Amino acid sequence: TTRVLTGITTSGTPHLGNYVGAIRPALAASARDGVESFFFLADYHALIKVTDPARVQRSTLEIAATWLACGLDPDRVWFYRQSDVPETTELTWLLTCVAGKGLLNRAHAYKAAVDRNREAGEDDDAGVTAGLFMYPVLMSADILLFNAHQVPVGRDQVQHIEMARDFAQRFNHVYGAHFTLPEAIVDEQVATLPGLDGRKMSKSYDNTIPLFAPRRQLEKLVYGIVTDSRAPGEPKDAEGSNVFQLYRAFASDAETAAFRQAFADGIAWGEAKRQLFERIDVEIAPMREKYEALIAHPERIEAQLRDGAQRVRARYATPLLQALRDAVGLRDLG
Ligand code: TYM
C-alpha cells in the first residue's frame, strides 16, 4: 500500500488555498485503491505563530469540520490531532539530533524572518523563536512517524518535505533503515493559489477567501479581487490574472479553455468575477451545508479525533518509537 499523509496548521480559518492545495488532492488520493491515508490537525505547529489558546481551539474545530465536510471518512482514513499523538514530539527530538543546522538555516520561513530583520537593520534573529527555526523538524516527525510515501501539499511546503527526506536519510545512515523517504505531491495547476491581492493566498497576508464563507460573503470577496484596469472589450492577459488562476483551480480543462478565450475576447472584469464566483460556489455549496451541520456538534468531532489518535498511536506511533528508542540506545518503555 501507498501511505498518503498531510496536515493543516490550526492557526486560523481554512481557506481556498488549503482546499485546492491540500484537502482536495489528499481526499482524491485517499479514494484510490491500495492507499492508506493520514490526515491531521497540526496544532503543535500553530503555537509557532499563535499565542491565543482560544484561537488554536477554534481553528482545530473548524479545520476538523472542514475535512469531514469535504468527504473525509474517519472509518477509512486515520484522522487525528497532532498533539494527541505525543510520540510526534519525541521523534522530533531524535530527528533534531541528526538534523543539520546549516540546512535549517536555509528553511524559507526562517530565512524570510532573517531577511525582514536585515532590512529593518535589526539583529538577524531578532524576534525569531527556536520554534520557528525548528518548524521543519517537527513537520518531518509528522511525516516519518507514519513512514508516509506521498505528501500532497501546495508548493510552499515542498522544501520541508525535502528536508524530511534529508533527516530520514541521515537517521537511516546512522541507525539502520527505519524510515521511508517521503515525496511531495504538488498539483501544478494550483501549486500556489493567489489571494485577493494577487500574492499567495495565506493567513499571514490577510488576503484569504474562507472556504466556507456564506454565499453572500463569498460573492463580495470575489468581487473584491484586485485586477488591472483594462476596460470591457480590451483583451486581457489570462495567465497573469488572479481571477483566471482561481477559476482554473475550480474548472475542467474545457471550461478553462473557454474562459481563456473570453479573456482574449475582452470579457469585462465584472462578468469574469461573476463566472468565477458561480464556479466556486457550485463546487463548495454542498460541502458548506455539511460544514454548518458538523460545526454545530463539536463534541462529536472531538470524540472522533480522540478515537482516531488512540487507534493510530496503538497501530503505528507507539511501536515505532519503541523500535527507535532501542535503535538509538534509550531504555525500552514497553
Ligand atoms: P498550512 O496550514 O500553511 O497549509 C495547509 C496546506 O495548504 C496548502 N496551501 C496552499 N496551497 C496552494 N495555494 C495556497 N495559496 C496555499 N496556502 C496553503 C499548503 O501548502 C499546505 O499543504 N506546515 C504545514 C502543515 C503541516 C504538514 C505536516 C503538511 C504540518 N505537518 C506534514 C504536510 C505534512 C502548514 O503550515 O500548512
Describe this structure in words.
Helices cover 55% and strands 8% of the residues. With 334 residues, the protein is mainly alpha-helical. It has 2 domains: 2-193 and 297-328, HUPs (Rossmann fold); 212-292, Tyrosyl-Transfer RNA Synthetase, CATH 1.10.240. The model has no long low-confidence stretch (mean pLDDT 96).
The unique ligands bound to this protein are:
tryptophanyl-5'AMP
Helix fraction, binned, reads 55-70%
Strand content: 5-15%
Rounded to the nearest angstrom, the distance between the terminal CA atoms is 28 Å
CATH class of the largest domain: Alpha Beta
The global form is globular
Assign the CATH superfamily of the largest domain: HUPs
User: How many domain modules?
Assistant: 2
In short:
The protein is mainly α. It is built from 13 helices and five strands. The chain has two domains: 224 residues, HUPs (Rossmann fold, 3-Layer(aba) Sandwich), CATH 3.40.50.620; 81 residues, Tyrosyl-Transfer RNA Synthetase, CATH 1.10.240.
List keywords for this structure.
334 residues; mainly alpha; Rossmann fold; Tyrosyl-Transfer RNA Synthetase; 2 domains; three-stranded parallel beta sheet; two-stranded parallel ribbon; 5 strands; binds tryptophanyl-5'AMP
Ordered list of secondary-structure elements with their pairings:
Blueprint lengths: L1 E8 L6 H15 L4 E8 H4 L6 H17 L8 E4 L5 H10 L4 H5 L2 H12 L10 H15 L5 E3 L5 H18 L7 E3 L29 H9 L18 H9 L2 H12 L4 H27 L2 H31 L6
Helix pairs in contact: 3-12, 4-7, 4-13, 7-8, 9-12, 10-12
Protein name: Tryptophan--tRNA ligase
Catalytic activity: tRNA(Trp) + L-tryptophan + ATP = L-tryptophyl-tRNA(Trp) + AMP + diphosphate + H(+)
Main location: cytoplasm
